[in-house]
């Protein structure tokens, strides 16, 4: 037999509720939220200020660690409609939120098949935007600042798209091609950076290569620029002097190399 003081906690007098989230700023960083519960809390914030509402625990998916600092315990936002139960039954002071209830207009347009994201890239040969999402195949996470992650399983339009709020992005296309657009790119490979390709094309105003040993394996390497220079270890490859020997037994002479078409 369950002692009377604990009956409410065992679900014998469970009350369910629907409410609207008014705060997610938990001072204890536990992922708790404040909910103004329909039919229980007055809509008039003078009668019951948001500050007087009890903190509600939130049931997180089992895929979100929930311990040792792992996982993302909170994704719900202010204004969301949520469903839950009171752990203390008729006392109704210990709310537990078990899920959210999306409202019309809450679904991200990228999920609905509506994209307004600019993916313009000016690299020669770059493929066009492959977005062709169909509901409900595109799984989208968008943060409050505007970061976006798309994992799209739309048949023949499968993509992975990671986007920064600035507009920089990296996207895997349905054929496996990779498109990257950023303001600036810095790669620290540590020990080795190896590139293998049939053709390597570089479009730049200036190209500077600084390395103890630089190796690029390719059938063709093209460096294209309207102006500027190609510099390897401080030596210009567009205008530079070097010593060469015209033939056996002849003295070395100094010449000037003019702009090459290919490097």
Structure write-up:
- The protein is mostly beta strands.
- It has three domains: 4-100, OB fold (Dihydrolipoamide Acetyltransferase, E2P); 109-181, Nuclear Transport Factor 2, Chain: A (Roll), CATH 3.10.450.190; 196-257, no CATH class.
- Helix content is 2%, strand content 33%.
- The chain is built from one helix and 17 strands.
- The protein has one helix at 109-112; strands at residues 15-23, 33-37, 55-58, 81-86, 95-100, 138-142, 148-152, 159-163, 169-172, 178-181, 196-203, 207-209, 217-224, 230-232, 235-236, 240-244, 253-257.
- Strand 9 and strand 10 form a beta hairpin.
- The mean pLDDT is 83.
Secondary-structure map:
Blueprint: E1 15-23, E2 33-37, E3 55-58, E4 81-86, E5 95-100, H1 109-112, E6 138-142, E7 148-152, E8 159-163, E9 169-172, E10 178-181, E11 196-203, E12 207-209, E13 217-224, E14 230-232, E15 235-236, E16 240-244, E17 253-257
Parallel strand pairs: 3-5, 11-13, 12-14
Antiparallel strand pairs: 1-2, 1-4, 2-3, 4-5, 6-7, 7-8, 8-9, 9-10, 14-15, 16-17
What is the average per-residue confidence, as pLDDT, rounded to a whole number? 83
Strand order of the largest sheet: 1-2-3-5-4
Looking at the structure, the CATH topology of the largest domain is OB fold (Dihydrolipoamide Acetyltransferase, E2P)
What's the structural domain tally?
3
Number of helices: 1
How would you sum up this structure in a few lines?
The protein is an all-beta fold. The chain is built from 1 helix and 17 strands.
Name its key features.
elongated, 17 strands, 5-stranded antiparallel β-sheet, single chain, mainly beta, 1 helix, OB fold (Dihydrolipoamide Acetyltransferase, E2P), 263 residues, 3 domains, 5-stranded mixed beta barrel, Nuclear Transport Factor 2, Chain: A
